[in-house]
From TrEMBL:
This is Alpha/beta hydrolase-fold protein. GO terms for molecular function: hydrolase activity. Gene3D superfamilies: alpha/beta hydrolase. It comes from Kitasatospora arboriphila. It comes from the Bacteria.
């Protein structure tokens, strides 16, 4: 899209930086003051205190539900996010308090009160989005634009020379497209039975050349909650990969953004367990599908796996439990072990309380008893991430002790998309080197 045109389209206005989030903060704060300060019958002695108590109770209940009962993700809700949720509930409670029990507001209030409550809610949502830095624009919230997946196989191919890199023998033809293509496609769980959501496949410009270069493959996974499209909408994957391809004659890894959880809030643990056979899906079904539908480089050296948060933990798990498939992995803000909230809950739900079954596939236990001298690893964490930073250091030390060619790095940010985006962008060159694309 032309940048001059995009700047006039509200879908492309930045909503985590610049004017928009601050305008929403001012408007929402003014709306909240209006809801609090404008008097109404029995407002100060009864309705206002009741609304405040209801909102506070709602915030506490939300935190308890998410962190202690539901536990949809291991990290729980940060205090700042919980506070913004409570503030949104306060706006709603104040609006309700003005309509009940017996004295309805005046005609203007029937419009202004709901609008004010809506502004408070939008402000809170904006601040939560800024906290995670997930959606940079409204367009990022929409489904990514995709094209049809190419199905033809080129009889003429270019492969990396033995012991060398593909870039050493690749000569980009005239007229090579400037950008890669994005497709959406199902990858069935033929062997695993895993019910995965559609994957997204990014193909670099060189894939459309003839002869076709046999490119390495990068399998990427999002966190929880999340979906395969997160790497496109929030991770700016297309920009990162297109920039790399532009600097390397159209060459870049093929990227498969796959579903390892089965749903937005699901957690398969990336294991073969009572919950699902997610490891079989990622170690067998995904590579099998790729071989049938795409022309790629073959062998573990040419296959890398990576992810963020839960996806980073999953990348580590696949690297140590399926080392014949994946020779390289990128763990961005992952955990020290796969978890459903607590170790006891995890072992009980996944393995019926069988600790030995869990230890057989838990990365720290696997690395303690096996060595991986031919595996390359990078661990990335935000320099403000007080929860996952120590866990990453533990896992990195275990990887080094297991003989991996492992490195660890920090980037500015917390457990958010600032870190996740940088974790990929700062390591594309390293991934391309490890997978035989460039020297």
């Amino acid at each position: 899209m032309d940048r001059s045109l995009a700047s006039w389209n509200p879908l492309d206005w930045p909503i985590t930086t610049g004017v928009v989030p601050y305008a929403l903060l001012v408007a929402g704060s003014a709306a909240l003051l209006l809801l609090v300060l404008v008097p109404a019958p029995r407002w100060w002695p009864l309705r206002l205190p009741a609304a405040v108590l209801a909102a506070a109770a709602g915030g506490v209940l939300t935190a308890l539900t998410v962190n202690s009962w539901w536990q949809p993700f291991a990290g729980g809700l940060p205090d700042e996010v919980t506070a913004w949720i409570a503030l949104a509930l306060l706006g709603l409670a104040l609006a309700v308090a003005r309509f009940v029990p017996t004295v309805p507001p005046r005609t203007a209030g029937k419009v202004l009160v709901p609008v004010a409550a809506l502004l408070v809610g939008v402000m809170a949502a904006s601040q939560v989005n800024r906290f995670y830095d997930e959606y940079g624009t409204l367009r990022a919230m929409l489904a990514p634009a995709t094209e049809a997946l190419p199905t033809g196989r080129d009889p003429h191919t270019v492969a990396a020379p033995p012991g060398g890199a593909l870039a050493q023998v690749w000569h980009p033809p005239p007229g090579l497209p400037a950008r890669g293509t994005l497709a959406r496609t199902p990858i069935p769980g033929a062997k695993s039975g895993f019910d995965a959501r559609d994957a997204y496949v990014w193909l670099p410009p060189a894939y459309r050349a003839s002869p076709r270069p046999l490119l390495p493959v990068l399998v990427l996974m999002a966190g929880q909650p999340g979906s395969p499209s997160d790497w496109v909408s929030s991770g700016q994957l297309e920009t990162t990969m297109n920039d790399f391809a532009a600097a390397h004659g159209g060459l870049a890894p093929i990227v498969l953004m796959v579903d390892q959880t089965g749903s937005t809030w699901g957690n398969s643990l990336c294991m073969d367990s009572r919950i699902a056979r997610a490891q079989t899906y990622l170690a067998e079904d995904v590579p099998d599908w790729t071989r049938r539908h795409l022309q790629t480089a073959q062998g573990r050296r040419s296959w890398a796996i990576g992810g963020l948060s839960l996806g980073g933990t999953c990348a580590l798990q696949l690297a140590v439990n399926a080392p014949r498939v994946y020779g390289t992995f990128l763990d961005i803000s992952g955990q020290r072990e796969p978890t459903l909230g607590s170790h006891q809950q995890t072992v009980q739900r996944a393995f019926g309380g069988d600790e030995a079954a869990f230890d057989a596939v838990d990365p720290l236990h696997v690395m303690a008893r096996e060595r991986f001298p031919d595996t390359a690893a990078t661990f990335v964490v935000g320099d403000e991430d007080g929860e996952y930073g120590p866990q990453q250091r533990t896992v990195h030390a275990a990887a080094v002790a297991a003989g991996m060619k492992a490195r660890s790095m920090t980037v500015p940010g917390g457990h958010d998309w600032n870190t996740f985006r940088a974790g990929l962008a700062d390591n594309v060159t390293w991934l391309a080197q490890q997978t035989g694309l460039i020297t």
